[in-house]
Amino acid sequence: xxxxxxxxLAVLLLAGCTTVPITGRRQLSLVGDQEVIQMSFQAYNDxxxxxxxxxxxxxxxxxxxxxxxxxxxxxxxxxxxxxxxQLEGYQWEFNLIQDDKQQNAFAMAGGKTxxxxxxxxxxxxxxxxxxxxxxxxxxxxxxHSNERISQQLAAEFGGATLGSLGGGASSQVLNxxxxxxxxxxxxxxxxxxESEADRLGLIFMSMAGYNPEAAIPFWERMAASxxxxxxxxxxxxxxxxxxRIADIRKNMPEAKKYYKAR
Length: 262
What we know:
By secondary structure, the chain is mainly alpha-helical. 55% of the residues lie in helices and 7% in strands. The longest helix has 24 residues.
């Protein structure tokens, strides 16, 4: 019986796989896109209620402008790939949260995106901001939140669906996946997902008309901001600075094929 259970789980995991756009990496997907998107909307709305939005009109407008340009690039790319259906249910939103201590940004499944004011001194300008927002939106497009939740379902619940779990267990999965228990409400990704988001983010910012070369000095500034202490939350699960910058240099020729200055 144990062997049969393992076989059934193996078949389920093999069947529940999708492919990440551009990179072609196979990823586990045991939860529906629309289910994750709706969960993301709820988590985002809850976080917005708990947060104070920036009153700086210039900075807020910049965040929205960069977000909308990258949104346009993503929609164009997915249309070219015949994959527009993967954006079904998206309700894009871009906000600047007032918190100078948070050097952070995020994009949830469904396009709900936010930047914290503490990150702006490091981004320095609109192109630097595009590095961050391209990276975070890439997480959503690559369905990393779906993958994270699926991995937890497979590890803790034998591949069960969220709908089949009781309310308490389902909430546990969501809270762990989104880091809600930590009081932040942001997805924690692994290094493979972070590196993938770096690559995709370079392409999306390039398509949006932002020079991808800006990614290297941005990540150098981000590394320097730690002053030898523990890395900021934004870097907690990311590759080492040296690895990241080396990978960005390697991926730069690919990204620049998509770049047209505006």
